[in-house]
Fold each of these.
Amino acid sequence: MQLPGGSRVTKGGKRRLAGRIAASGVLAGVIFLLPAGVAGHQDLGGDGVPAQESFPGSEPPQDAQLPPGQEALAEPEAVPGLGLTQDPVEATGTLAPSVTIQAFVRPEAERLRVLVRVPLGALREIEFPLRGPGYLDLDEADPALVAAARLWLADHFEVFEDGSRVGPALVEAARVSLPSDRSFASFDEAVANLFGPPIPSGTDLFWRQGLLDIALAYPIASEPSSLEVRPAWNHLGDRTTTMLRVQTVQGDERVLQFSGDPGTVRLDPRWYHVVGDFLRRGAIGFAENAHYPLFLLCLVMPFRRPFPLVGLIVSFSAGYTITLAASGFGLLPNVLWFPSLIGTLIALSVVLLALGNMVEVSFQRRWPAAFVFGAIHGFGFWFLFRESLQFAGSHAVPSLFGFTLGTVAAQVAVVAAAVPLMEFLFRKAVSERTGIILLSAVLGHSAWHWMTDRGSLLLQHQFQWPALDLFFVASAMRWFVLFLILAGVAWLLLGLFGRPERTAVRVGT
């Protein structure tokens, strides 16, 4: 039997190798078939329900069919035009279940104007003056409205100029609007509504059904490119969705929509701002999604020397960079099942690497696997990247460059931390071969359950054959071009890593 590197194995060595492979298979089978909670592949919440993970394809499909006999839970009844579910305090005890916030931001001369609309029912701990059966007393409501505007909105909207916080905010106006009011369709209409005549004081309006409109002003002294804002209004509800429209003096508008707290948002970013911001987003996205670090650990575990480590990171990064960039050009099919498919394949890649670590493997075989799996992971990275793309302004290419650079930096950090720990473990605790098998089995077990979970979601989708039209032909041509690009890069990598005399590395060496 010929091993990579030219060495041969005797009959006794063959028997030992076969025994190790059989033992590895038995151990992997036992661990993979353990109940999910035994190996701790999921964290259970206080009610025993598995916690949600941020994993491509983990969201339930919109076109999925429920099992027979199971009824869908009804959504809370919504009040038309409010963006707030009815009776929020009764529904959750404290927080409104869902709140929609509309806001405008516009720099003017020496001030930054911020217009905000939020449902009154989301503002807790404020005693609004009432009359009759619970109608808002509009004649006496102004002090409470100003207090609510400052406590729940202004104090949680931060403005930074050249890195320094600006403030405090001046509450220029606070006004109650009817649920049917549509003045926040544009900045000028919102200003006219805020500073125009109020609604008649005799209007019968239950306070929970009203909308609070406010105008804030922050003193500034520089151009918009140095201004950043942080709309941290996630405290208003269990789920908050903010539509923030950033306007320039010339009238140009950029619409941002996000959930929760987005962090700081630069109003008019330059390309170098975008690169730095997306470098951070790429690194955080890689680290926060457990399947990426686990894949990387399985990938490099048997190869802890500098040349193989660099080769594997380069191969993996090259693969996902190509498909990530291709996704930005609209390559992804517009079907609901594709994210679930990618999530399943990403989990499968971890399982296959874990199984491969339990037998003899060479770097010459591992780097092509890293490249192919990287191409699959690139679509998963796109699902993370596109959520943040709106914050790049017109700098799509710098944002893609920064995001990719951030993921590479995260890979280097994970490898730099994990390799010394594995070396210490293999010297002090267990033998290298035993340690690789055990670690691979644990990681593969987690990925196995991820794969089955995502696979079950994938099977709930309804699949239809595409129509054989010109659009299908154009899509097929784009995929063919992508395949040619991947083949060309693989050929280049073959010239770097494909010679056995330089790259053959056995597990445990």
Amino acid sequence: MTVATRPPAGRGCATLVIGGFAGLYPAVRAARLSPTEALTAV
């Protein structure tokens, strides 16, 4: 029986994409708001 594994580079790329999206999406949303709205939107 063999177990198929993905190469480590694929895992690293997936981590960067997911982490980038998780970090950039809220930052872009907050940048569009005024500072007081951004603080109260939490």
Amino acid sequence: MKSGRDFLELDQVDAQALKAILASAHKMKRAPLSFQPLIGKTLALVF
């Protein structure tokens, strides 16, 4: 999936992109510790 795209409505996503999203989610769920996109970055949540 290309970066910078918004996922707002399911009907705006073609079948190939949806399959890629679901495949990525499946990989992350099977091995959650191997997917760490925030390593070396700082994250702040302000409420």
